[in-house]
Amino acid sequence: MEQSLSAQLDKYADLLVHKGCALQPGQELVLQAPVERADFARKVVRAAYAAGAGHVTVIWADDEVMRMEYQNVPLDYFQHTQPWKKAQLDGLAEAGAAFLFLEGRDPQALLGIDPAKPAAAARARNTECLSFRNGMDFGRNVWCIAGAPVAKWAQQVFPGLPADEAVLKLWDAILKVSRADGADPEAEWDRHNATFESNKRLLNGYAFDHLRYKSSNGTDFTLGMNPGHIWEGGAGHTQEGRAFFPNIPTEEVFTSPDRMRADGIVHSALPLVHAGQVVRDFWLRFEAGAVVEFDAAEGREVLEHILKTDENAMRLGECALISKDTPIRQSGILFYDTLYDENASCHLALGTGFPECLAGGLDMNKDELIAHGLNQSSTHVDFMIGSDDLSVTGVTASGEEVPVFVDGRWAWGK
Amino acid sequence: MEQSLSAQLDKYADLLVHKGCALQPGQELVLQAPVERADFARKVVRAAYAAGAGHVTVIWADDEVMRMEYQNVPLDYFQHTQPWKKAQLDGLAEAGAAFLFLEGRDPQALLGIDPAKPAAAARARNTECLSFRNGMDFGRNVWCIAGAPVAKWAQQVFPGLPADEAVLKLWDAILKVSRADGADPEAEWDRHNATFESNKRLLNGYAFDHLRYKSSNGTDFTLGMNPGHIWEGGAGHTQEGRAFFPNIPTEEVFTSPDRMRADGIVHSALPLVHAGQVVRDFWLRFEAGAVVEFDAAEGREVLEHILKTDENAMRLGECALISKDTPIRQSGILFYDTLYDENASCHLALGTGFPECLAGGLDMNKDELIAHGLNQSSTHVDFMIGSDDLSVTGVTASGEEVPVFVDGRWAWGK
Predict the structure, then answer these.
(1) How does DSSP assign A278-347, residue by residue?
(2) How high is the ipTM of this complex?
(3) What are the tens digits of pLDDT across the range B19-33?
(4) Nearest C-alpha in B relative to A83
(5) Which of A11, A92, A112, B372 has the greatest number of CB atoms lying within 10 Å of its CB?
(6) Do B62 and A62 touch (CB under 8 A)?
């Protein structure tokens, strides 16, 4: 590894430990990392101990081993979490660990795999490892997802390059879009979060009744907001109020819209990557919250498959606002990874919404959430609609019109 | 990886799975492997599934992460095995898994580390993970230790070479000395084991009262055998009688001698590597089983430390016979790893003996073993005495003298 890159990665490791995980002296850090990126994982371990970690548990992952597992082991095996795995995740969560997930995945690792197997494994983990799952969902455990390149990912992002070069180029991109390429990434994230706080405060203050989207690409669309909707984004907070960053990078300010009030047409601004497949140049027409017509220049069948996932997959669960001036959008790179790509532009998501985006939502069951206008589905697929000249106008219950986005940027600057 | 090396490593992977672990269809394989050698670990996983493995669990290891753990985490932590780790090892052992330990270690990984920490971790694992420990000790679980190079190890074996070259050279050496460099390593191991069986049958048939060692290097030494001593070596067997190889490579035919009858002087034939330190050109003088005098051209204090471990560390627990024609000895390489180095020549071991090397020994407690002449100690340190002209003569209770080794080779050929 080149010396200057190595020094910058030390700063990135510190950022993940100090800001992403807000690691406290004596606390356990659980680090999930690809074996191929052991060099960087060791930097994170070093940073964690330097920050006073009580202990670091590294959970190593390998796409090829996982792929062989899914290829060779019958579905049954995946329908329950192994007892030792449950003991590991729940035990560490109960001990108050922070969880840092270093994502570096071959975008094609699951190509050709029976999707029922990874789906069963995820469902089992979510329903059986409850201390782990709830610890993260209810602010008892800090968690952070951040990226680190592996060769097959880097070569998909930068096709035609030798593996080593592609990895270096992806490191460069990751540092840049994660706002970790400067002299003081931690200060950069303090400033970044102050902007989040300001944007959320303004949006939540307006309590819009609906948003109106317009763009020269044909987008002409109205989206209803639920009473008591909450805009989220930037830092998360533990129950004790400690700030941490669930995603590094993150650029989105988001809420969950009224599942019954979406009308008009939206055109895609960027390709949609779903389970290794790409949908390009597509549009969706909504009536009373539901998709009633759609088409795509490429990958229409993928879109159709998403919309048919369940009866609520054709309704919206999220709308997110992201300026076109963000480093991810400026990079012009398609990362083939939601952590980055969903932060590239204003987006909507088909499928499930977020209970935390509705006042009282965390205490409601599924039926109550739906009754309050918050969509519930087994899927959640983001798609990018943030064209360069997108305008978003907020309309209050009293009919006041407030420019929110003009020409793809926040109307109030930043 | 070069094409021909890659193809040979596929054969090595098959050897470990088929012969080392004798993996059965549907059986779980637990593979412990260094993250740095993921390329080869994946070959083993592939070989295991091809052999019908029900599932493969990979337990990844990393010397640098381990070293940081020992440097930063207090002793307390290591005095108990983590509950999830116990659940993992015991659970997999109880499910009948085969355990394959791929050893690739930086010989200096623990240099400067408080030895109480790794010692506590090992003790905790041995005393707390009883299904795992006993499963392997009592033939319920198959286990196999084999080698795979990592850069820091390879560069210690071949100093001055760049990491990549050193690793390739160590791969070459490992394949050669593991009898896995030919067209059909598995057939090679069948032949190899037939030789073990023959040597054990002959030695056990003679039931010697004592052995007499002589060499031009000054060795002149008599070693008593216990009544009911058993020579072991080569394949191990599960309770159901399935043969497997606990060590690949292995060249030694060994037993545990009478702890009270060792007399005379033995001179080292090769350096002794202990906890990263080297002892060279040393000798030990025994009287009535105990070391009464010793010296070394280099590392005398290491030897002294070993002898003082406990009150039985100055008595012998093992004598092993290995021809000078074996590939390890022929390679002339000091591997800085017991798996290889103990197979380089005839050796003795200070410290604890093996209950399985005494008729009925597996059913005896520590005091009974000692009463039957089998040494018991918390240490076991092999040292090499197999000089090129070593002769070993077996003497039966009736005084018959049988040449066992002549000029460093089995007297009966092979």
Answers:
(1) EEEEEEEEEETTEEEEEEEEE-HHHHHHHHTSSTTTTSEEEEEE--TTSHHHHHT---SSHHHHTTSS-E
(2) 0.91
(3) 999 999 999 999 999
(4) B87
(5) A92
(6) no
